[in-house]
Amino acid sequence: MRTAVYPGSFDPVTNGHMEIIRRAAALFDRVVVLVAVNAMKAGFFSKQERVELLELCVAQIPNVCVDFTEGLVAHYARDIAADVIVKGLRAMTDFEFEFQQALINRQLNPGAETVFLPASGTSMYLSSGMVKQVCALGGDISEFVPREALPLIVERIQPSK
Length: 161
Ligand code: ADP
What we know:
single chain; binds adenosine-5'-diphosphate; alpha/beta; five-stranded parallel beta sheet
């Protein structure tokens, strides 16, 4: 039984995240999508909202569940005896940061190996920040976020619509 944790801000979930989730679900027996606190990112959606949106989107994938942590990803992975921490890699901009994180996570929890999955071409430049900006300025984000999450995301970012 191989368990993977896929951590991130998911503020909010995008099709880029969903692609990584689906690919991880095909590789591992169980995938826990983990909404984790990032001290560097203030965040727009609350922790509960991020979890709720993710749960709507993974409901049809049987071996995927959603959780959150206030603590370190490495400690969460240790506590559930996860074998792997999955990270998505977009352009080179992600590499330096993710590599550093992987080294620190190994130091904190040698029991979990970090596995990088490369973004596909179409997801390469997709980020939660970009989705929030486009939506806030009235743009159509239906190509960028899962259909299950779209109405809630739009309603929250453009409450007047
Ligand atoms: P962001 O806020 O930058 O969109 P998150 O912190 O939510 O990202 O990202 C969680 C994980 O998912 C990270 O490993 C990140 O590199 C990865 N990820 C985010 N967006 C994509 C994407 N479009 N394609 C592949 N991986 C992605």
